[in-house]
UniProtKB/TrEMBL annotation, chain A:
Domain CcmH/CycL/Ccl2/NrfF N-terminal: 9-152
Biological role stated in the UniProt entry: Possible subunit of a heme lyase.
Keyword Transmembrane in annotation: yes
Pfam families referenced in this protein's UniProt entry, alphabetically: CcmH (PF03918)
Gene3D superfamilies attached to this UniProt entry: Cytochrome C biogenesis protein (1.10.8.640)
PANTHER family with a match to the protein in the record: CYTOCHROME C-TYPE BIOGENESIS PROTEIN CCMH (PTHR47870:SF1)
Residues making up the signal peptide according to the UniProt record: 1-21
Family: Belongs to the CcmH/CycL/Ccl2/NrfF family.
Protein name: Cytochrome c-type biogenesis protein
UniProtKB/TrEMBL annotation, chain B:
Subcellular location: Cell inner membrane
Disulfide bond found in the keyword field: yes
Keyword Disulfide bond: yes
InterPro entries, A to Z: Periplasmic_diS_OxRdtase_DsbE, Redoxin, Thioredoxin-like_sf, Thioredoxin_CS, Thioredoxin_domain, Thioredoxin_ResA/DsbE_sf
Source species: Pseudomonas asuensis
Protein name as catalogued: Thiol:disulfide interchange protein DsbE
Length: 157, 178
C-alpha cells in the first residue's frame, strides 16, 4: 500500500515537472540566439508581477512580452534596440539594470562613495586617538622630576 | 559645544531616513508612471468593436479631451468600473474604449447587457495597441487632450473617488485650455 502511494506521488511529481516545462516553446536560429533570449528575459522585469523577471513570470503580460522579444530578435534587432523598445512603452522600470547617467549617479556610485567617506572618518578618528595617546608634550616641573626620581630609586632598592 | 553638535549627526541622519521610509510605506508600488505621458497616442488602425468594417485610427480620438479606457470582459475589475463610466458618459464626458485581448462576441454581449459608455471602441484582439500603450493590466484609463496627447494615466478601477480626486481636475484643466 505504502509503496503504491509512494509510486503515485513520484509519478505526480514527474508530471508536474513536465507540465511546468511545457508552458512555452520558441524556435531559435541557433544556440547563441537561445542564450541571448534567455539573458534578455532575465534582465527585463515583468511590469505586472514586479519582483519577477520576464523569464520567470507566468503573468499573461510577461508571456506577451516574451513573444514580442522573440519576434524582435527574429527581425534582427540588437539587445539595445529591444530594450529601448520596451522602455519606450513600459518605462525604465522594466530594466533591472538602470542606465548609468547623471540622474542615476547617486544610485550607481553612492554606495562606494559612502564606503569611502566611512573609511576617511575612521582614518581621522584613529589618527586623532593615536595622537592623544602619546602626550609627548607633557613637561614635568622640577618638583615632579625630583619626586619621580625618588620613587624610582625606592622601587629599585 | 562643537563636539555636542557632532553627536547630533546620527540622530539627524536617522530622522531623515525615518521620514523617507515612512513616506515609502504609503506609496503604491504597483502603480508605474507611464512612459507615454505628454506623448501622442501611438499610431494604430484597428476595427471598431461594433462594426468590423470600420477601421479606427488615432486621428479619430482627436478633437476634445477624453478618457481612453482599456477594458476586457475577462477583467473582473472592469465590471466594477463600468457603472462609473456609464455615469461619466451621462455627464457628457467623452470616453473611448480599447477592448484589449478580448473575444468580440463576449464584448458585444457585455456592452448590450451593461450599457455602452464608449463613443468609439477599438477592437484590439491581439493586444498590439495595448503593448504600444504600455498596458500591463486592465483596467487602465488614459486622459488625452484635444490633440490626442496622453496627459495622465490611471491604473486600476476608476471609482467615483478616483474620478473626483485624480481625473476630474485634470480633465477640467484640459477643457479650459485653449
Amino acid at each position: 500500500m505504502i509503496r503504491y502511494i509512494a509510486a503515485s506521488l513520484l509519478l505526480l511529481l514527474v508530471w508536474i515537472g513536465v507540465a511546468q516545462a511545457a508552458i512555452e516553446t520558441f524556435n531559435y536560429a541557433n544556440d547563441a540566439e537561445r542564450e541571448r533570449f534567455q539573458a534578455l528575459t532575465r534582465e527585463l522585469r515583468c511590469p505586472k508581477c514586479q519582483n519577477q523577471d520576464l523569464a520567470d513570470s507566468n503573468a499573461p503580460i510577461a508571456a506577451d512580452l516574451r513573444r514580442e522579444i522573440h519576434r524582435l530578435m527574429e527581425e534582427g534587432n540588437s539587445n539595445e534596440q529591444i530594450i529601448d523598445y520596451l522602455v519606450a512603452r513600459y518605462g525604465e522600470f522594466v530594466m533591472y539594470r538602470p542606465p548609468v547617467e547623471k540622474r542615476t549617479w547617486l544610485l550607481w556610485y553612492g554606495p562606494a562613495a559612502f564606503l569611502l567617506i566611512g573609511f576617511c572618518i575612521i582614518l581621522i578618528v584613529v589618527r586623532r586617538r593615536r595622537h592623544e595617546a602619546l602626550p609627548s608634550h607633557v613637561q614635568l616641573s622640577a618638583d615632579e622630576q625630583a619626586r619621580l626620581a625618588s620613587l624610582l630609586e625606592k622601587k629599585n632598592s | 559645544m562643537k563636539r555636542r553638535l557632532i553627536l547630533l549627526i546620527p540622530l539627524v541622519l536617522f530622522l531623515g531616513m525615518a521620514v523617507f521610509l515612512f513616506k515609502g510605506l504609503y506609496l503604491n508600488p504597483s502603480e508605474l508612471p507611464s512612459a507615454l505621458i505628454d506623448k501622442p497616442l501611438p499610431a494604430f488602425a484597428l476595427p471598431a468593436v461594433n462594426d468590423p468594417g470600420r477601421i479606427l485610427t488615432q486621428a479619430d480620438f482627436k478633437g476634445k479631451p477624453a478618457l481612453v479606457n482599456v477594458w476586457g470582459t475577462w477583467c473582473v475589475a472592469c465590471r466594477e468600473e463600468h457603472p462609473v463610466l456609464n455615469a461619466l458618459k451621462e455627464q457628457g464626458i467623452t470616453i473611448y474604449g480599447i477592448n484589449y485581448k478580448d473575444d468580440n462576441a463576449s464584448a458585444l454581449k457585455w456592452l448590450q447587457e451593461f450599457h455602452n459608455p464608449y463613443q468609439l471602441d477599438v477592437r484590439d484582439d491581439k493586444g498590439s495597441l495595448g503593448l504600444d500603450l504600455g498596458v500591463y493590466g486592465a483596467p487602465e484609463t488614459y486622459l488625452i487632450d484635444s490633440k490626442g496627447v496622453i496627459r495622465y494615466k490611471h491604473v486600476g478601477i476608476v471609482s467615483q473617488q478616483v474620478w473626483r480626486d485624480e481625473l476630474a481636475p485634470r480633465y477640467q484643466q484640459l477643457m479650459e485650455a485653449p
